[in-house]
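step 3/5: co-fold with zinc ion
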Amino acid sequence: MSDTLVKAISRGIRIYAAVTTDLVNEAISRHDCSPTAAAALGRTMTGALLLAANLKNQEAITVSFQGNGPLGYITADATPEGYVRGYVGNPHAELPLKENGKLDVGGAVGKGLLQVTRFTGIGEPMRGSCEIVTGEIAEDLTSYLFTSEQTASSVGLGVLVGTDRRAMAAGGFMLQLMPDADEEIISKLEASLKEVRSISSIIADGAGPKDIVSELMAGFKVDFLTSTELSFRCKCNRERIEDVLLSLSHDDMQSLVEDGKAEVCCQFCGEKYHFEKDELVHLMKLADGVR
Ligand SMILES: [Zn+2]
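step 4/5: write tokens
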């Protein structure tokens, strides 16, 4: 089954669940991620897709973990249409496993700032931030939603990485309390969440996003709303890369021309763009013409 996000509601609760195994694997191969980098980036991209599901069409969100750990900054852009792209500063960084045998994502992310930027297409983007709490990504997003957006939420994220460095299961959920959630609903939900298995083991057992909702919300009456296909997609293209080259100084451009060719790599998706000497000369002339 392809990667999908479903939205559902129950009385007083909004529920989003996503399976992202394929797109996390695409990110792993594009960036050649270590297992810990794969888990951190996969969780961040899945979290960004869950946050983006609350946006209007044509809006977009950037989730950026600016931690002091060995992975460096981790950034993911997502849209409510189901597209996501992301990268990690040091994709080869790795730490020893924790005592419980799990990947040390929190240690690899470190302490610092989590910043979330919402692009509405109108006016300045809206920025919110909070301190990174554990660096395990899901707890940090839960804390961000509470402190910056005053929304009581529970975010769960998981990426199960196999010995072949591929994601065997990846996905997540976001539960948000709506104003009409009463005490009875809240305590029933808290009890239900305590019982629930880790999200990656639910997905590893073959669950789709609707099955995740059913498992999380066992005992609740749930109505399913929309379902959106998810994929890794970057906005880069040759024209955008040419714009970057056009913004270089004459001297920098001159040295690329002297090299005889240039390779420009998109930070977000790892796509490589090659430019031959005659194209570089053409771009240098264009840039010089408007200087
Ligand atoms: Zn790209």
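step 5/5: annotate
The longest helix spans residues 35-52.
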